[in-house]
């Protein structure tokens, strides 16, 4: 048996993955043994028990006791300050409360912390895991969850994997609807603020921008596209880049509302009137869209409904698994809505265009 150096990641210094490595089994097998699942051979059970003893691994009994009779719904998240995540959490908590689920949160900021975050979710009683953006596009995270047999639902991924259940909207169609709206207003010089390049919805929204401009016979100059990361600060940097020259676009389409709000702030600082001097549009319709002045024209993504649908999907997977059944992979597509507000038209009353 290979000794494992203890760390301070838990009270005992060992995680479920340490036990799995020493025993030569998967983390899910260790979880089954610790939860006294009968679908484990005695030989495997003895290996896991011996490995746990050698590492002084301790099950979180408080978490186990707290979830007796409940379903542990794990949530692996990053970027907690985003408006998107706030809206998602509200929807997930509401549905868990209604469905007898216990929401268990774990933050993961980078690839290094990802493995440990998943281990902590399992140790704290997660029976399945929700993966919202941007982690929904992390192939390593989804592969890790698949390897340990953990029920998983990805939320807002632009290209859901064949073997992973997912809830999303059509990001390409939503961005195309926004571009067609801007073009219908007569705009020909439209700039774009990109989202996180690793996030598939960001890629699809940018591609829709390029395709719409090409279909309208309009070229896109390199200086009309600015990089962003879906954060307000990245939106500030992008807006300064796009508006820093005398030759300015007549409209800016940002890949999310946080960055669009930043564009409006920079425009105000340059004494530009929105929408008279510059039209600004976003995507998602998070609370920030109506907290800024003027209020944002944006594409409404039903984030709360997506969270509720994802919780329902995950709980069904968990219950089927407990019953010894195989849960089918589901890909659910929810509708988006284009909402026009004052940032594109000073006379705009809320005008809804669905798709």
From TrEMBL:
Alphabetized Pfam families for the sequence? LacI, Peripla_BP_3
**What protein is this chain from?**
LacI family DNA-binding transcriptional regulator
> Residue ranges of the HTH lacI-type domain?
14-68
Q: Which GO terms describe its molecular function?
A: DNA-binding transcription factor activity; transcription cis-regulatory region binding
- Species per Swiss-Prot/TrEMBL record: Duganella violaceipulchra
- Statement: the UniProt record of this protein carries the keyword DNA-binding: yes
PANTHER family from the UniProt entry: LACI-RELATED TRANSCRIPTIONAL REPRESSOR, LACTOSE OPERON REPRESSOR
What are the UniProt keywords, alphabetically? DNA-binding
Record InterPro entries = HTH_LacI, LacI/GalR-like_sensor
Show the CDD domains listed in the entry. Answer: HTH_LacI, PBP1_SalR
Q: Which domain of life is it from?
A: Bacteria
Keyword DNA-binding assigned to the entry: answer is yes
Q: Which residues form a coiled coil?
A: none
């Amino acid at each position: 048996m290979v000794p494992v150096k203890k760390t301070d990641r838990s009270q005992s210094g060992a995680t479920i993955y340490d036990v799995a490595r020493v025993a030569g089994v998967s983390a899910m097998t260790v979880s089954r043994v610790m939860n006294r699942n009968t679908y484990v051979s005695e030989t495997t059970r003895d290996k896991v028990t011996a490995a746990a003893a050698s590492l002084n691994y301790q099950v979180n009994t408080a978490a186990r006791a707290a979830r007796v009779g409940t379903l542990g719904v794990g949530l692996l998240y990053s970027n907690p300050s985003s408006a998107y995540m706030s809206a998602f959490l509200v929807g997930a908590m509401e549905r868990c409360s209604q469905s007898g689920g216990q929401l268990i949160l774990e933050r993961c900021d980078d690839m290094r912390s990802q493995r440990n975050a998943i281990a902590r979710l399992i140790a704290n009683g997660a029976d399945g895991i929700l993966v919202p953006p941007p982690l929904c596009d992390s192939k390593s995270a989804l592969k890790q969850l698949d390897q340990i047999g953990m029920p998983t639902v990805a939320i807002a991924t632009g290209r859901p994997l064949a073997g992973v259940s997912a809830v999303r909207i059509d990001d390409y169609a939503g961005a195309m609807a926004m571009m067609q709206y801007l073009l219908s207003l007569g705009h020909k010089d439209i700039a774009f603020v990109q989202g996180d390049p690793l996030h598939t919805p960001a890629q699809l929204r940018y591609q829709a921008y390029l395709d719409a401009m090409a279909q309208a016979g309009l070229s896109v100059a390199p200086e009309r596209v600015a990089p962003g990361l879906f954060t307000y600060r990245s939106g500030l940097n992008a807006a300064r880049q796009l508006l820093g020259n005398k030759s300015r676009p007549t409209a800016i389409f940002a890949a999310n509302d946080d960055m669009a709000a930043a564009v409006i702030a920079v425009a105000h600082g340059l004494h530009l009137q929105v929408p008279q001097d510059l039209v600004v549009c976003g995507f998602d319709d998070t609370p920030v869209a109506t907290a800024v002045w003027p209020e944002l024209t944006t594409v409404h993504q039903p984030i709360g409904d997506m969270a509720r649908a994802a919780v329902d999907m995950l709980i069904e997977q968990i219950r089927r698994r407990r019953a010894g059944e195989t849960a089918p992979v589901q890909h659910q597509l929810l509708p988006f809505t284009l909402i026009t507000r004052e940032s594109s038209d000073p006379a705009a009353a809320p005008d809804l265009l669905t798709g």
